[in-house]
């Protein structure tokens, strides 16, 4: 069961938090990866809020093909790609990159980030967006120690997760790299962690799949275009 109702608009909550972006500051290229099975407002709205907080002009969505740390998606790679494209087709903040879907092997974040780094050069700011749940387990990721050598980490709030890291040594790692300065993120190419006060939306793709199976309303959880697509493809009917 979903515990909270998603607000229709978040602009009024975050207008007063939008930082002044210095003229001539480098543009941060930001990436947001996920299984997106299906994509929903819990993915989109915190990232939209983060974009206003940090001054992001562009966020690239990266659907995973073979996620290494979780069960395989129920929807096919093509179906998940089409849902992501539908979700952002009228939102100029987002574009979609398919490089991970083109792999037959597991998608490791550090390798994807390294491929972007090669494309944009060593001095351009690059950021990877994650949730607090992922931050808690980031020490289990493949070559996680190399992530901050390639990018910044922008962390969205998640209900039920603390900003303190519980794994041994990880809180010290967080404090060493944490910054509250959005200016630093745009002036440095990598190396910092920013904990963003984004809206707490208690939505998960697992809950949506369960609700869809039970015939329950999902209007507050994901765009109507995605619901229609799910119905047309007869997804999540097991």
Automatic annotation (TrEMBL):
SUPFAM superfamilies xrefs: Nucleotidylyl transferase
Give yes or no: UniProt keyword Cell inner membrane.
no
Q: According to its UniProt record, which reaction does this protein catalyse?
A: nicotinate beta-D-ribonucleotide + ATP + H(+) = deamido-NAD(+) + diphosphate
Question: Which protein, by its recorded name, is this?
Answer: Probable nicotinate-nucleotide adenylyltransferase
In this chain the Cytidyltransferase-like domain maps to 31-211
Name the species this protein comes from: Xenorhabdus poinarii G6
Gene Ontology terms for molecular function: ATP binding; nicotinate-nucleotide adenylyltransferase activity
User: Could you tell me the EC number(s) of this protein?
Assistant: 2.7.7.18
GO biological process entries:
NAD+ biosynthetic process
Q: In which pathway does it act?
A: Cofactor biosynthesis; NAD(+) biosynthesis; deamido-NAD(+) from nicotinate D-ribonucleotide: step 1/1
Q: Would I find Cell cycle among this entry's keywords?
A: no
What family is it from?
Answer: Belongs to the NadD family.
Keywords linked to the UniProt accession: ATP-binding, NAD, Nucleotide-binding, Nucleotidyltransferase, Pyridine nucleotide biosynthesis, Transferase
Any one Pfam family here would be CTP_transf_like
């Amino acid at each position: 069961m979903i515990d909270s109702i998603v607000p229709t608009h978040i602009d009024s909550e975050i207008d007063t938090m939008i930082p002044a972006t210095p003229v001539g500051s480098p543009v941060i290229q930001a990436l947001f990866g996920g299984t997106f099975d299906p994509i929903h407002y819990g993915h989109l709205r915190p990232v939209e809020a983060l974009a206003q907080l940090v001054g992001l002009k562009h966020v690239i969505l990266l659907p995973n093909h073979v996620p290494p740390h979780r069960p395989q998606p129920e929807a096919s790679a093509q179906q998940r790609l089409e849902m992501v494209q539908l979700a952002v087709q009228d939102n100029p903040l987002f574009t979609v990159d398919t490089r991970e879907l083109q792999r037959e092997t597991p998608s490791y974040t550090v390798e994807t980030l390294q491929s972007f780094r090669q494309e944009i050069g060593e001095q351009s700011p690059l950021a990877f967006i994650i949730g607090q749940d992922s931050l808690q387990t980031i020490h289990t990721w493949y070559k996680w120690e190399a992530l901050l050598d390639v990018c910044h980490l922008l962390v969205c709030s998640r209900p039920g997760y603390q900003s303190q890291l519980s794994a041994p040594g990880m809180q010290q790692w967080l404090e060493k790299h944490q910054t509250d300065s959005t200016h630093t993120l745009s002036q440095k190419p990598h190396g910092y962690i920013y904990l963003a006060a984004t809206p707490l939306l208690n939505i998960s793709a697992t809950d949506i799949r369960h609700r869809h199976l039970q015939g329950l309303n999902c209007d507050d959880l994901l765009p109507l275009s995605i619901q229609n697509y799910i119905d047309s493809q007869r997804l999540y009917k097991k």
